[in-house]
Amino acid sequence: MRKHIIFILFIAFTSVLFAQQNKQFTLDELIPGGKSFYNYYPRIVEQFQWHGNELIMFREDSVFRVNTLDPDEKDFAFRFNEIQRNGNEKNGNVSNVNFDRDGGDNLIFSTSDGTGVYDLKTGRVISYIGFPKNSANREFSPGNAYLAYTKDNNLYITDGTGKETAISSEENKGIVCGRAVHRDEFGIKGGIFWSPDGNKLAFYRMDETMVADYPIVDISTRIATEKSIKYPMAGEKSHEVTIGVYDIKTGQTVYLKTGEPKEKYLTNVAWSPDGKFIYVAELNREQNHLKMNRYYAGSGDWDKTLFEETHPKYVEPENPVLFVKNNPNQFIWQSERDGFNHLYLYDVSGKLLKQLTKGDWEVTDVVGFDEKGDHLFFISTNPTPIDRHAYSVNVKSGKINRLTTVPGMHNIAVSRSGRYLVSRYSSHDNPGEADLIDTRTGKAVTLASARNPFAAINMPPAELGTLKADDDKTDLFYRMIKPADFDAGKKYPVVIYVYGGPHSQMVQNRWRYGSGGWETYMAQKGYIVFVMDNRGTTYRGRDFEDITYRQLGVEEAKDQMRGVEFLKSLPYVDADRLGIHGWSYGGFMTINMLLRYPDVFKVGVAGGPVIDWKYYEVMYGERYMDTPQENPDGYREASLLNKAGNLKSRLLIIHGDEDPVVVLQQSLQFLKSSIDAGTHPDYFIYPGHEHNMVGRDRVHLHEHITRYFEDFCW
Description:
alpha+beta, 5-stranded antiparallel β-sheet
């Protein structure tokens, strides 16, 4: 009897193991918005912050202090609900806390309704500011004494008493204050900039009255209604931006005297440490001439131009000046002037003191200084563009130290002294890890790691490789996802997933080389999925990116065809069953590839595609294409409208009907051109969605895409 029970248990165990190894995923398990998505999304449960030189660990709502000399030694500090019990009972549950990196006693906590200050010594809530009804774009002042926010098109502030003060009072809805401008290009993430002491508030004022209204139709109402937006298309009239400075003590606002011409870009706004000046990177509409200008915050008067940058193609500032800690007379500027994004040290007179970093690699993020201001910590693509590693540079000597060595994509948090850092990273075979690193010795200790959600599952393998670009010199990185039961003796259909545009890098040494859930889903259905970063994408230097200048879609397509040629050379690829899919710029590239190479692909699915760059926005479009008036041949060559007659493949175009980024007019124009040319693309609309489908509809989207490939590529 005992032997029979053991045998039955063995059969049951091996059956479960076999089922796990050969699991068939659903889209609900692989796509964000799916019911079971987070069951298979690797994440590090523990979070870490620095409180001065003390390491803090969060596990759910519990806070621990970690001994940096022996990270296994952790002392419980408190739970979030203690903040509720000590003066925050009426203001909602605490969802997040932030310790002062400099080691101060005040902790900032957040709830769904507001933000407050908690005194770690006394264990009491010092202040709390609730979020005003209908407020957006919220920014707290240093120390959380005030909250600045927008309602509709105007800017307000409030304090802990609930008193609301209007900073602007624009009645014309075409004039907007306190919001991001220039359609979030040039690294712009918001429109509110507090001074270091919290006594002044700089803000964007955007006048869009001269920009044409663009109709967006809302079909959710009983009778469809129009929701017009301002959409400045390439070559058309753009908005005009100014920068106001509000003084809390006097209640007065002055505007920086940025002068003529009004059609220019005011970017990378930064305060001087003493709050007397505001630094603005000003870029002409042509985007080929930058001036770093300084203004008096009190009067708005122009002080001086510190330096200028020009380039025959374009200049793209994306980071404000960063003042050296403990030295208000020096600042760091990021620039691509030598062909790669690097760090430059200036004094406040505008004199270049030295170039701090140099080489055929890019600085991708600046983390900050140690407490003395001697060392600046940053992330870069050195030594390989598919990794990210942490470094420090000595501001005085220029000596650079590499701080992370394990391959992968690292981001870091540094202790106040700079002695220790926490690096969170993943790599193709590591779903995620957090390490404590001693910057003096290089010793690394694992603090926490993510569980591999696929550990017991026979997964489609993710492979990395390189191919030569169309110039026969440049290496292009690709990833390939193969079916889990791959058999080199069989023939497989292939889906090429493409983006291919600026500010993108699809192939990285992160978990499974950055492959997404849909790639896994298609691989388990028997497809090979191929993704490659062509020239024109980012993090490989200026020459790599701006090869596409004034001719979007040309060089990228040539490089993608190198990928196609490689795939066709593989004995297990069915060259008669090639498909391609992409979204946004990738949607443009999908249709572009089908029309430039009409005999290559059997099927394509293009989401939110740009069809003709003259229908796209001023800032992005004119940077890479100039205006339609200046570059008519380039616009004509890049347009997909005059190529609609080349369509031989099955093509599905998908668009959100309220898309404010790539407007619906783009794909509708292609339908019109296709009708005129006698070709027959298919079309699907997601009502009520903007540029991307979110929530449960995102699962539906990927099911719809998959069905199209199953119907016409399998």
